[in-house]
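Sample entry (463 residues):
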Amino acid sequence: MTAHMLRRDRLWIRHDNQLITGSPVRFFRLSDTGRATVVDLENGAAPTQEHDPLTERLITAGALHPLVEGHLDAALVTVVIPAYAAKAAHLRRLQALVDALGGLPVIVIDDASPIAVHVSHATVVRLDSNSGPAAARNHGLGLVETPFVAFIDSDIHITRADVCVLAAQLTNHVAVQHRVAAKVVAPRVLASKRRSILARFERNTAPLDMGRHATKVAHGARVSYVPSAVLVCETATVRDLHGFDDTLRCGEDVDLVWRLIAADVVVRYEPSVTCTHETRRGLLPFLTQRFNYGSSTVDLATRHRGRLAPLRARPTSVMSWVCLGAGWPAVALACALLDLAFMTQQFKRQHITNRLMLAMFVKNFLNTGDRLADAVVKVWWPIIVVMATFSDSVSGLLALSIAVPGLIAYVRQPTLDPFSFLFLRTLEKFSYGAGVWVKGFSARDMNALLPRFLPMSNSSVSG
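Predicted structure, serialized as tokens:
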């Protein structure tokens, strides 16, 4: 027995018959009937058939998020686990995962491990040569005979019940009324509960954790991709796109998700289901992982032009923050007012109320500051550090870019002392940026370093 519910997006600002919601942010002008429908949704009323046209539009726009409450029959889902075992501990962890999935058909693809993989209660297929996780998953995909497949990494802990709940999100229960069912869904991936400093750090800012809020995955949204640590899919949909790109050793999950989105496949992030991911043991493996993440962006930027710009914003918004960080408050205020003037001019043409206009401006301004700071520390730091040796203004911008977002992240969920947290967070971002620069130079492709400035007529807000 299953039921479904609709949840509002975390951004939901309504003034009378005007609504700003979703990610990327969308503006809706509501009719009287539409306003009554939205009020019902705000009050938690179950949608009725007469609500269908508007609720479909809101779901499609990422403003409403369906949740199927129930479990899919375990016989309809096959689990594919790519495995590379270099230590006995890896085999023990893999067996623990298979045991937790008891009752589901499980296919383990041994990617030519140094230690031959032997796992009970699973079908094990060994590849002749090490080909990477993408090729291993594709090999497993070819063996799947069920309508749904769950790709799960060997260092994940998740239960059979969680996988069946995720697979239920791909059924047609939601689509009966709304015809907007997802074909791919991913859970929230949390860091393991080990007590090491790195594990405690990642419990605040795990790279695979896409946050607390459900969302439709889309370009320019607060969640623009989901990792393949756990990815539950409609088998036929993934096969139609030929699975993962096995030429990619890292970033293959981002590439697949973006190809799915380009093919108009609905991908959803469902944080009501959580799993845990093993943190790297030791500082060097931790930094190497981040370096590899950064290097993968160069290949992805080549395949998906414009999708991986480190900063996407209007130039006046960027200049406001640059001047503020450099210690020029008067110039920063002038740029902010100019930015507001451009936005006001456009919103007046759409007859958007001043209240909603101000809300969108503030959100856009804060998002730009956050993303600028992230780009400075995560991608552009080699240039910024050199410039900082010659300029106090650039030094101030770098210091603020490190300290302010870092302390905000720390306060939200303090898991270690502030100094250790800021140190590891900065080291993590510098390692990522080093990967971008090294791979960019070797490939002679620096597109992953370039910002993307929006035209001044663009008032869209992402995140």
